[in-house]
Amino acid sequence: MIQIGDTTLMLNDPMVLIALGFAVVMIFAVLLLLIVARRIGRSSEMTQGLANQMGGLGARVEMLSNGQQQLFGGLNSVSEAQAQQQAKTLQLMEQRLQLVTETMTQNLSSSAQRTANSLGELQQRLQTIDKAQENITKLSGDVLSLQDILSNKQTRGAFGEIQLTDIVSKALPSDSYTLQATLPNGKRADCLIHLPSPPGPIVIDSKFPLEAYEALRNATSDWEKAEASKQMRVSVKKHIKDISEKYILDGETADGALMFLPSEAVYAELHAHYPELVREGFAARVWIVSPTTCMATLNTMRAILKDARMREQAGTIRKELGLLHGDVDRLTTRVGNLDRHFAQARKDVEEITISAEKAGKRAGRLYHFDFEELAPDVDTAVVPLAKTDS
After folding, report:
1. What is the reported pLDDT for 61?
2. How far is it, in rounded angstroms, from Cα 169 to Cα 242?
3. Can you give the pLDDT at residue 30?
4. DSSP secondary structure string, 41-59?
5. Which pLDDT value is given to residue 351?
6. Which of 11, 90, 228, 254 is the residue whose CA sits 20 to 30 A from 146?
7. Helix spans in the chain (H)
8. How does 36-64 read in b/e, with b if 16+ C-beta sit within 10 Å?
9. What residues does 79 pair with on adjacent strands?
10. Distance (Å, rounded) from C-alpha 122 to C-alpha 355?
């Protein structure tokens, strides 16, 4: 870079280089002229030749100047074209950058929206999982409470009574059974179903011994299983005998009783591996039922109770049917009378319609002064009055 006054010349600029070259050539020419001038005195011929050379050098310098001007014009054109191309390139880059920016903004907005939605769904699912976890925790506590209940004989009996009460209350009307009913022999039954005779009231017992079944389920060795199975047979036989002796009373209750098992698993275990106990219950007229079979049995009892009540109300029903028959007869008679009234009214309306049509025709003829057409309607049976002598 060369600083000349207020003008700054860049050495990498082609125009500056050309100008410097021209300046060097001019300096060289001046030096050459000085040398020639010194040697003028030596020889005129050399002076003439030098003058010729100087003339050729001046022509070449002029050509060089013209070439410099042409080169300067070409450089200006190239600079302008380059500037235009650069402006177009910058404009295109700005447009593409704007398009890319808009696309990225839209993509980021969509991604943010999808992320927000995903986070919202994730939060809802986490809430659902939290609720499920709370329910599982509560259920675990309930299971532990149920195990505590079943581990105690008294609480287990209360649990069986509650379960039986729930089933009976859903299957039968409230006036068709009694809970903790006292029998004539002084024994208290868990539930007494008031069936008509026959078969008569029937007892349901819910105090099934589950200790043997729990021991059988928890047995790990063959000896423990054998001992638990033997205990199971003994306890079930004793319970069947107790129910048969306590709750089957001749002339007071039905000829049988129900032994309620509070677990379907125990019911399945008895029928699968202890069929002799089930047959022994049949022989003692003690029917073993589970929650499912108990509900089916109670629905059958409900049908029996409904049929008995229908028979009790048979007289009332017959009386009501007689009254209903009389009401139907009176209704039939009144409908017939109403039909006759409608027929007479229809006939009267038809006659009124005919008279109205005739009156309308006659009024039309009168309106048009068509008296000749009225002549035939004159009654010829009417005798005209004779003139009297005055």
Report:
1. 72
2. 26
3. 72
4. TT-HHHHHHHHHHHHHHHH
5. 82
6. 228
7. 14-38, 44-151, 153-171, 211-218, 222-247, 264-273, 275-283, 291-312, 314-367
8. beeeeeeeeeebeebeeebeebeeeeeee
9. none
10. 88
Q: Which tokens is 229 given?
A: 């199975």
Q: Distance of CA 27 to CAs 30, 174, 177, 305, Å?
A: 5, 136, 140, 142
Contact 259, 286 (CB under 8 A): yes
Other beta carbons within 10 angstroms of residue 208's beta carbon come to 21
Over the chain (390 residues), what is each successive 10-residue block's mean pLDDT?
Answer: 59 67 74 70 60 71 75 73 79 81 80 80 80 71 47 56 84 85 86 84 83 80 86 87 87 86 84 87 88 87 80 73 81 82 82 81 69 49 47
Tokens, residue 294: 């108990």
Residue 390's pLDDT is what?
42
Q: Are 249 and 267 in contact (CB under 8 A)?
A: no
Buried b (16+ CB within 10 A) or exposed e, 361-380: eeeeeeeeeeeeeeeeeeee
CA dist 238 and 211 (Å) reads 13
Q: Could you tell me if residue 289 is left (phi over 0), alpha (psi between -120 and 50 degrees) or otherwise beta? A: beta
Q: How far apart are CA 212 and CA 218, in angstroms?
A: 10
Cα(125)–Cα(130) distance, integer angstroms:
8
The answer to whether 291 and 163 have CB atoms below 8 angstroms apart is yes
Torsional sign, CA 75, 79, 84, 86: positive
Tokens in use for 150? 């079943």
Domain ranges of the chain: 2-91, 152-317
The 8-class DSSP code of residue 201 comes to -
Do 208 and 260 meet the contact criterion of CB atoms below 8 Å apart? yes
Spatial contact of 286 and 279, defined as CB atoms under 8 Å apart: no
Q: Are strands 188-193 and 202-205 parallel, antiparallel or unpaired?
A: antiparallel
> The whole model's pTM is what?
0.42
Q: How far apart are CA 161 and CA 34, in angstroms?
A: 142
